[in-house]
């Protein structure tokens, strides 16, 4: 038995404070909390629509905002979803939800990658939870669960960056992204 092996044959634990060899590094994005910040469900014509039993036509608008908290060490990322549903041109329901996460970024994360981490990576992580909130709200409102299709946050972020560059008069490209792109819809 070598000095690095335990009596069971497994490698010995590393000294306190050191990560084992080959262990994953600390996460570049750490979620401290996630929560439903705001939820609204309106169904102004529910009684009239229940007799029709037709599936509603739905439009979904998406927005992502990143708000620095405290001393800027943490950021609140808010995924805003607005779902408008109608049946035969009659408003069936409107659901608006703000689902948020309180995150911090590792110092190891390159500066040029930070905006994308906040506007793409974090929304991708919290989207399944926001989607479940929307599905539950529509079901609890008497309609079939509204299952929002996956959102391409990368494409949404690129559109936001391009729109910001056009407003600022700078050429496009894959260079450093601005830290606070304008909100968009998908």
Name given to the CATH architecture? Roll
Provide a count of the helices: 3
User: What's the CATH class label?
Assistant: Alpha Beta
Query: Remind me, CATH topology?
Result: Bacterial Protein-export protein SecB
- H/E topology pattern: EHEEEHH
Task: Provide an overview of this structure.
There is one protein chain. The protein has 186 residues and is an alpha+beta fold. The chain has a single domain, classed as Bacterial Protein-export protein SecB, CATH 3.10.420.10. Helices cover 27% and strands 31% of the residues. It is built from three helices and four strands. Strand 3 and strand 4 form a beta hairpin. The chain is elongated, with a radius of gyration of 22 Å. The termini are far apart. The N terminus and C terminus are likely disordered.
Notable traits:
single chain; 186 residues; alpha+beta; Bacterial Protein-export protein SecB; 3 helices; 27% helix; elongated; disordered C terminus
Short description:
The protein is α+β, with helices and mostly antiparallel strands. It has helices at residues 46-50, 111-140, 153-168, and strands at 29-42, 57-69, 74-87, 90-105. It is built from three helices and four strands, in the order βαβββαα.
Task: Give a topology summary.
Blueprint: E1 29-42, H1 46-50, E2 57-69, E3 74-87, E4 90-105, H2 111-140, H3 153-168
Antiparallel strand pairs: 1-4, 2-3, 3-4
